[in-house]
Amino acid sequence: MLEVRNLPIADVLELRPRRIGDDRGFFSETFNQARFAAAGIDSTWVQDNQSFSQAPLTLRGLHYQAPPFDQAKLVRVLRGRAFDVAVDIRAGSPTFGRWVSLELSAEAFNQILIPIGFAHGILTLEPDTEIFYKVSAPYSAAHDRTIRYDDPVFGIAWPLDGTTPQLSPKDEAAPGFAATGTPFSFAGAAP
After folding, report:
1. Tens digits of per-residue pLDDT, 83-107?
2. Which residue ranges make up each domain of the chain?
3. What secondary structure does DSSP assign to 8-30, as a single string?
4. pTM higher than the cut 0.90
5. CATH number of the structural domain 2-18+46-185
């Protein structure tokens, strides 16, 4: 069984796979292509990625890949907690420039499905947070893009309480959205 909840931006979903528990622990199918298809979710995953962050308030993002290596992502936390953000960067979308967030945790056992056309960022909320995600296209350095996490164009309310997050040099040097633009168009946009 797979519980699916719509988030405030269309096509960004929270997923909760069923856990079967007993005195040994639990078992779960965290991904089942037939169950995803039955829920109306296209799930052609080609690569799994895993990240580990020792420090809380480690921020990765905002990342996306340009076509033809554009990626949908299915993200979950294996250990710890994280604040996950998806930003709609599809030109012509009714939610263009808006963001949606979801707290992911090992305890909640939830996942977020982020479709193609969204920039993605994730902020760890606890030490030793481990994140696992599936992507629909392989990594391509030539198509990898980064937007500044604190770009005022988006106004993302990261739960930082005035603290500067720990960033990679690449994320620290990322340009704002006005400098990067978008390679994505909303499928329902007028020509």
Report:
1. 999 999 999 999 999 999 999 999 9
2. 2-18+46-185
3. SSTT-EEEEE-EEEETTEEEE-S
4. yes
5. 2.60.120.10
